[in-house]
Amino acid sequence: MSAVEQWQDVRSRIEATERETRRQRGSVELVAVSKTYDAEAIRPVLEAGQRIFGENRVQEAQGKWPALKADYPDLELRLIGPLQSNKAADAVALFDVIETVDREKIARELAKEMKKQGRTPRLYVQVNTGEEPQKAGIAPREAGAFVQHCRDALGLSIEGLMCIPPAEENPGPHFALLAKIAAEAGVGRLSMGMSGDYETAIAFGATSVRVGSAIFGARPPLGRPAA
């Protein structure tokens, strides 16, 4: 199937899961993850009507999205990968949503750059629900206090929480944990679920799901262009 046909299939599955879980139709946003794919691979999906996209790296996004944003001014671009502090200025300038606020230093840099640039991308705190040492994110027991710190000390409005469950574990308990933390912190949005588990995430309350390979196909080997 083409990327557009696969995109349509994912949308149908999201709508079906909304019905099955008694969620309101349209309550779950689809974030099409376009990392490693060039502008020409993305355009057909844009033309079909998809308007929310996710990228993992600031530098890669800078190479393709300014021109696409000029052609499609209503699109929304989200940073869903790790953010280095020296890229905070670029991230604030380019992205509409930053989902990976994962430590104090990044929160401070974003606050500084948002004030400096007069831009206010919406922010999510990344929670390391599996407490994996190799993975970014705030520990679950510290997430509520971190959200409050961002609000009170840094003046940041935190829209939601994001997580990436451990690959080898059942994602359900991780999605449930994120929903619980969000409720306790007074946060309304949940970015959780990817190509292999987005339907499960919807059942646990996801308000956005991040789907890449199920739309665009298998990713090319590192260092090779996307076909």
Description:
This protein has 227 residues and is of the alpha/beta class. The chain has 9 helices and 8 strands. The protein has an 8-stranded parallel sheet. α7 (172-185) links the parallel β6 (158-162) and β7 (189-191). The protein is globular, with a radius of gyration of 17 Å.
Give the structure's gist in a few sentences.
With 227 residues, this protein is an alpha/beta fold. The chain is built from 9 helices and 8 strands.
Total number of beta strands: 8
Envelope shape? globular
Please report the number of helical segments: 9
The fraction of residues assigned to DSSP E strands is: 15-25%
Order of helices and strands: HEHEHEHEHEHEHEHEH
Poorly predicted parts: 222-227
What's the structural blueprint in terms of helices and strands?
Elements: H1 3-20, E1 29-33, H2 39-48, E2 52-55, H3 58-71, E3 76-79, H4 88-94, E4 97-101, H5 104-117, E5 122-126, H6 140-152, E6 158-162, H7 172-185, E7 189-191, H8 198-203, E8 208-211, H9 213-216
Parallel strand pairs: 1-2, 1-8, 2-3, 3-4, 4-5, 5-6, 6-7
Descriptors:
8-stranded parallel sheet; alpha/beta; disordered C terminus
